[in-house]
Prior knowledge:
The protein is built from nine helices and ten strands. Strand 3 (205-209) and strand 4 form a beta hairpin. It is elongated and about 125 Å long. The longest helix has 57 residues, at 32-88. 51% of the residues lie in helices and 14% in strands.
Amino acid sequence: MVPVVPAATVTDACGPDPGFFCELVFDNTENERLAEIIGWVVERPLRIILILLVAWIAKKIAHKVIDRAVARLGRQHETDTEEQLESAGKLDFGARATKAISRIQERQARSAQRIETIAAVLKSLATALILAVAALLCLSELSIDLAPLIAGAGIAGLAVGFGAQSLVKDFLAGMFILVEDQFGVGDVVDVGDTSGTIEKVSLRTTTLRDVSGVVWTVPNGEIHRTANHSQLWSRAILDIGVSYDTDIDEASEIMKAAADELWRENNPDATILEEPSVWGVQELGNDAVVIRLVVKTDPSEQWGVGRILRARIKKAFDEAGIEIPFPQRTVWIRNENDAGDNAEQSPPGSVDRRERSASTGDDEAPAELSGDGGGHDSGGGGDE
């Protein structure tokens, strides 16, 4: 029978960091092999179970924190929605209020779905991170050397980071787009290189369709600025030019009357939220006096309202005899054969301008250009 050789110290039996059970067995038996077996059978499984238990608790805490943060965000959106619903209820016409309330409720449903998506993504990321750390700690408890594994993972992560940095940028930008509710499906936006109606928003890309029907897929990381034309309300701005001899007050009243008529019609396809306003003279141009009319509309309806109002203002101006002028210029004409005589007859300081006719090739100009000291440019003109 071979006698049992006792170990010199507890470190020889249980290692530099002895566990409670291993050290207890060694102190009572001084048997190195028995202490080592107890350490593997009892000590290490208990540590692994403890690590998994802590990981599970950490996951629950992380999920609870995420739920509270998302709930706070949801309450903020609910407060904004209540304010918008209260404001919509104050509209003068029932149909307008109903349409506004329906639109706000749709945005609320979209916000709720967006918040749920954000919460699910954050919970998944937190769970993956906690489980990865727990797995490394469990492997460490099994005396597996983690240095090569960590080094290999670091090199792989570095390579993936360089190769997929644009992908990570897109995902982060997509998260902020969802959290901040910068735009959503159905909104009309301008993202810099293109503009159109949003058809799909994901964490990586945004898909929109422009006015020509072309579908654009834009990586979220490439969206540096966003102009949203469909948030809560829009504004149609009409700059209408009239000739300099027009009565500005009369023209402004006609424009205001046309806008007020459309406002009172309660057209479901051209919803005007407030009484239209004429801001006055916007510009004194070379050919016209520009008057600005401003109309507050439902989101994305400013273009339709603008088209309807331009047509009605044009008809009203025609009935009132108000001219929307063409570009005009004054032309001085002279014959080269009579250049000397004309020069002697011209008063000091006068400007002699020469225009050659493109159609005939000679120096004679059409007679209609000389009427009343001015004329219309044959190629210009049109509504402002």
